[in-house]
Amino acid sequence: MTHVKKPLTILLASPRGFCAGVERAIQIVERAIERYGRPVYVRHEIVHNRFVVESLEAKGAVFVEELDEVPDDRPVVFSAHGVPKTVPAEAARRQMLYLDATCPLVSKVHREAERHAESGRTVILIGHAGHPEVVGTMGQLPPGKVLLVEDAAQVERLCVPEPSNLAYATQTTLSVDDTIGIVSALRRRFPAIQGPKMEDICYATTNRQGAVKAIAERCDALVVIGAPNSSNSMRLVEVAASYGCVRAKLVQRAADMDWAWLGDAGRLGITAGASAPELLVEELIAACRERYEVTIEEIRTTDENMVFKLPRQLVA
Prior knowledge:
Layout (H helix, E strand, L loop, with lengths): L5 E9 L5 H17 L3 E4 L6 H10 L1 E4 L11 E3 L7 H8 L4 E3 L3 H15 L3 E5 L5 H7 L7 E4 L2 H6 L8 E5 L5 H14 L13 H14 L4 E5 L5 H12 L5 E4 L7 H4 L4 E6 L5 H14 E9 L11 H4 L1
Parallel strand pairs: 1-11, 1-12, 2-3, 2-4, 4-5, 6-7, 6-8, 9-10, 9-11
Helix pairs in contact: 4-5, 8-9
């Protein structure tokens, strides 16, 4: 007697997966290995994804947490999340060859923070404490010039030197909805505060959250492929839950999927964080096909055509 597979409709969110900043960062490491030979050192995970890190290690990348683990005579790449000013300064002092893979949209936030500081404003950064992007942004300015807030409650407790002389910036990978709430709290408490014309949250974060919002209500369960230390991936799980799919979870790859958790779901939403390769999405769909009679419906909410240029040293 043949076992009849249960039907499962997969609602595939699009856009999903790699963004232009992640593609550029990975390419920088690959090109550096081609140009300078192995090993090329990378300070911090180039992007927050084990699969990506391991595939670059296989090609000759060595990942370290700090610059003092890198020999003077080998190239070092700074991760897409950005680094405090002290890091390139130290690399220059040691006359190292370094390549900066900071996402241009993160660099834009760095420049904004510097401009505000030059005008004498205290910068309030909305973000997650300890996240490498936040550490990098706060490290653009001297200690005490950037104050971090993580939620609206912290806004109420904030002590600032001059309430009339403030500006805010945000981490690029936050929840769009949460950030609107925090910005409103800041504007209520400090009416003179200056901010970016558009929130600093990047196009890719916004688009991936928009795609999840479009499918969440129609899903019995939703899986975000991504890493637990990936801010934008974790936000997608929260967005799914807020927009009607309470059974939402992060899965690193198909091998980690808890099939019992899926239970009797007939419609499964799948998306991937900005640092997760499409290969991992395909792998999960293949694992679903082994167990179910799968129908795929791709829901596309917008088209992305953003491309970022590589650093000059790798193009010449």
